Amino acid sequence: MMPAMNIKRIMAIANKEFIQIKRDPRSLGLAIVIPIVLLLIFGYGLSLDIDKVRTVVWNQDGSSQVSRDFLLNFENSKYFKIIGYTDNYRDIVRALNNGSSMLALVIPKDFSRYLRSGSKAPLQLLVDGSDSNTATIAMGYVKTVVTQYNVNLFASTLQQQGLGPPKKADLRSRVWYNPGLNSRWFIVPGVIAMIIMIIAALLTSICVAREWERGTMEQLVSTPVKAPELIIGKFIPYFVIGLIDLAIGVIMGRFLFGVPFEGSYLLLVILSMLFLTGALSQGIMISSIARTQLLASQLAILTTFIPTMLLSGFIYPIFNMPKAVQAATYLVPARYYLVILRGLFLKGNGMDVMWDEAVFLIIFAVLMFGLAIRKFKKKVA
Question: For residues 205 and 224, what is the distance between their CA atoms, to the nearest angstrom?
Fold first, then answer.
């Protein structure tokens, strides 16, 4: 039988816990803020629907009204956003390489003549397959537009000249960087970025906060060791752990999951070291603000896990988010590191393509390291 319970004792314990919660208002505040942030991001900022797919067009038959009428089907569709027109493949390659465009549509110079003669009019569609899921959906949209155009074209032919020869736009797709649209090729680099960001910030924030809780930090502070020296000394072991995690991620991705690596390993290490420096410094800064492990872990999750998972482009395409949320993603360092990883793994990009992401990682590393030293000094004082 269950022993008799004393309501007064239960209420006394509950009252004690309420007092403990009141004594730690920052943890209570985060417990309320985190659900609100998640609801706002999922409810307002994120959508599983794909629209406004960035597209670049090379209309070699630009003088023809037929080709211009065909392009109206894309210009008037909410599913596509034509970001520019070009007259060469060089611009197309650049747009697909740097991620400014996902689709490139090439209309041949004899497009209208093919249709008038009743032949199949070839259309070339080039697709950035590094985001396999979005690329698959975008290709489906293009096929739907072309199919509907062919239906309308055939109906118009029947009305004007009887059956006549069949007229048809013949879509020929080619997927770059991930020809098989393998989702692992898209996911694995994103997981590596998430691991480096979360593990680095979470480990340092909790481990340093543990020293504040145990009182050993005060002992270190009382020694002649300066604040920058103390931070760098704590920084080094976790920096090594972060590089080991990076190596594990690359090896497993390359040989276990079969993700190709087309870029420079040296460039990967250098840029990863910048990102790792910023992430570790952010963890130290968090531990200087929150001297308890519980609060430090909550802050680390709020500032690393949620932005990296939801706002970096790891799962949800940034171009599909509302403008306000897109602006917020520029403050998420994992966004830039993710572009670098996917560019190195799948596209073989060099610094000529990724220099702007590298500049942001430098700013992130310097800013976070400076703030970590400043906050630590302030706390010690």
Answer: 23
